[in-house]
Amino acid sequence: MQRKDRNVTARGGGPPFTEQAWAGSLESPYYRESHIKLRNYIRQYLESEVFPYAEEWELKGEVPRQAYDVHAAKGFILPGLPRKYRNGKNLPADIPDEEWDLFHSLIITEETSRSPHMGPIWGLGSANTISCPAILNFGTEEQRMKYLPDVHSGKIRFCLGITEPEAGSDVSSIRSTAKLSSDGKHFIVNGSKKWITNGIWADYIVSAVRTSSTASGASGISLLIIPLSSPGITRRRIANSGVHASGSTFILFSDVVVPRENLLGEENKGFKMVMSNFNPERLHLAGSALQMARTCYREAYGHALRRKTFGKALIENQVMRAKFAGMARMIESAHAWMEQIVWHIVQHPRSEQTADVGARLALLKVQSGKVLEYCCREAQQVFGGLGYSKEGPGRVVEQISRDLRVLVVGGGSEEILDDLGIKLTLSLAQSKASL
Ligand SMILES: Cc1cc2nc3c(=O)[nH]c(=O)nc-3n(C[C@H](O)[C@H](O)[C@H](O)COP(=O)(O)OP(=O)(O)OC[C@H]3O[C@@H](n4cnc5c(N)ncnc54)[C@H](O)[C@@H]3O)c2cc1C
């Protein structure tokens, strides 16, 4: 669609590279009027009701319940759910159901990631985003109807429990156990989970547990929905460098009784479910990292125009302009790659789980983390001492320098994902060769 045919224009629109190209001056084949409408709608909401309070909430370590309820009322908790799981509600900005595609979800990721602090954004429900797809994709219809409408309305919250003190990257080595009771009606869960986002407030955890006493490694793992109010559960917050308002939590299970009907999918087949659940999370993290890199660019760019040294603005020095060139190149190329992958998934909705796309999402997530690290470092350098200070014009970039590490490590760490990306392409090449 030609820009002149659009009857809505995108809000914002700063200097090149401070916004996505399609929202600025360049044409894009991927975005329609509904994307612009959603972007304007969410931006207006976030700029008036979330971003002004983000610093306060991050310092407090919590998003107020009322703000969470507003977020839910606006339809931003699991926004893309089918209508029957949304209590019949319209999609955000009244986007017609048939027009919603993955670019709309990407816009929500990007717009929320414009926050000067990521903690409150994660506090507003990112754990629902990474845990509930397991219910949608592997749960029974009864389980979906039992939980998803209440998550969407903000009544209940979920978190995802994969990582344990002894098992992070190597999910197949988890030790938490779920043993079936002698009458076969319950699982008895013992073990622990670490760094669980939103775990301190969540009502339920979708947890990976070992259900087989004989099978080892990836075999014998299941996914279980565990109510976090159950007797035998203790929770304590974990203090991290950043994302304070995300509610990072250590959870201990001690003889926790969980009804058998809370099993998600087939018993002992949970490892594959955990792995497939990672693909949408990696896209979300990549989109978020690239937006945060753009924020670094924008903040530093403004400073380089304002700050004068040796009688001229920083931006007038060639070595400074080279920094912006480097950042812009990295952000724009990774973003174009991401859009291409999203476009492919929009055209082939089941492809998100194929090796071809999984490999690219793994590598994209690594690349986006590297782009963010690079841009944050360069932006801090442009700010000089101000980039190290929690107050003043460099404070957004300083905060990002503390928030960014979890985007590089969480959802699959760099070393693991690089290797996964290439291993997947090798297996594809081998299977093609054997045809
Ligand atoms: C703020 C925060 C929020 C999180 N939220 C959640 C959540 O909601 N739910 C959840 O389940 N988890 C969560 N996590 C955990 C996160 O997913 C793990 O930290 C991540 O998977 C890495 O595991 P690990 O920290 O145990 O690192 P390890 O597995 O101990 O790895 C340490 C380092 O070594 C590298 N490495 C490991 N093995 C190899 C190898 N064979 N070859 C080369 N390099 C290797 C890794 O890439 C990593 O850099 C969160 C973490 C943080 C910090």
TrEMBL record:
Residues 1-20 are annotated as: Disordered. GO terms for molecular function: acyl-CoA dehydrogenase activity; flavin adenine dinucleotide binding. SUPFAM superfamilies: Acyl-CoA dehydrogenase C-terminal domain-like, Acyl-CoA dehydrogenase NM domain-like. It comes from Sistotremastrum niveocremeum HHB9708. PANTHER family: ACYL-COA DEHYDROGENASE (AFU_ORTHOLOGUE AFUA_2G16630)-RELATED (PTHR48083:SF17), MEDIUM-CHAIN SPECIFIC ACYL-COA DEHYDROGENASE, MITOCHONDRIAL-RELATED (PTHR48083). GO terms for biological process: fatty acid beta-oxidation using acyl-CoA dehydrogenase. InterPro entries: Acyl-CoA_dehydrogenase, Acyl-CoA_DH_CS, Acyl-CoA_Oxase/DH_mid-dom, Acyl-CoA_Oxase/DH_mid-dom_sf, AcylCo_DH-like_C, AcylCo_DH/oxidase_C, AcylCoA_DH/ox_N, AcylCoA_DH/ox_N_sf. Belongs to the acyl-CoA dehydrogenase family. Gene3D superfamilies: Acyl-CoA dehydrogenase/oxidase, N-terminal domain, Butyryl-CoA Dehydrogenase, subunit A, domain 2, Butyryl-CoA Dehydrogenase, subunit A, domain 3. GO terms for cellular component: cytoplasm. Residues 33-155 form the Acyl-CoA dehydrogenase/oxidase N-terminal domain. Residues 159-256 form the Acyl-CoA oxidase/dehydrogenase middle domain. This is Acyl-CoA dehydrogenase. Keywords: FAD, Flavoprotein, Oxidoreductase. Its cofactor is FAD. Residues 268-417 form the Acyl-CoA dehydrogenase/oxidase C-terminal domain.
